[in-house]
Design goal:
Helix content is 40%, strand content 25%. By secondary structure, the protein is of the alpha+beta class.
């Protein structure tokens, strides 16, 4: 009987603490204008270096061009220290100034393609088709940083 009372008390305490959490945006926390595109990838653990090599010639090169043009704020690559655990082991992040930066723009496209070379396109055309043999994209998210006050 006492065990049931104990578990009932734990359940009530847990649900009561959930009901109290009423935070208001911009009062209790700030929401960044920056939007990050986060892609989670499961790469075969023995192929992570090969994938990174390919990214350095494709994804990173494209992001450098976009940064030079002011189309993105930055980019990051994270690799798990435990590559065989979990549903992903590589995270790719691209940071945009705000949500309007995600809108299609012919001017941005034309500027990017002018700076992006035929050589870069040839390298991309060669490498990208090999990615499905070594990795699976497990998720893609648009995220904003929350700063609690």
């Amino acid at each position: 009987m006492k065990i049931r009372q104990f578990f009932a008390g734990v359940l009530l305490a847990g649900s009561a603490s959930i009901a109290v959490a009423d935070l208001d945006p911009w009062t209790d926390y700030d929401i960044s204008e920056t939007v990050s595109n986060v892609t989670t990838v499961k790469v075969d653990s023995n192929m992570i270096d090969k994938y990174l090599e390919g990214l350095s010639k494709t994804w990173v090169t494209g992001n450098k061009v976009a940064m030079e043009l002011g189309q993105i704020e930055g980019y990051s690559i994270y690799v798990s220290e435990l590559p065989d655990s979990g549903s992903f082991n590589v995270v790719l992040i691209t940071d945009f100034k705000d949500a309007s930066s995600l809108q299609p723009s012919k001017d941005n496209y034309d500027a990017f393609m002018k700076k992006w070379s035929d050589e870069n396109q040839a390298i991309t055309d060669e490498i990208v088709p090999t990615y499905p043999d070594i990795r699976t994209i497990t998720g893609e998210y648009l995220m904003r940083e929350i700063t609690l006050k």
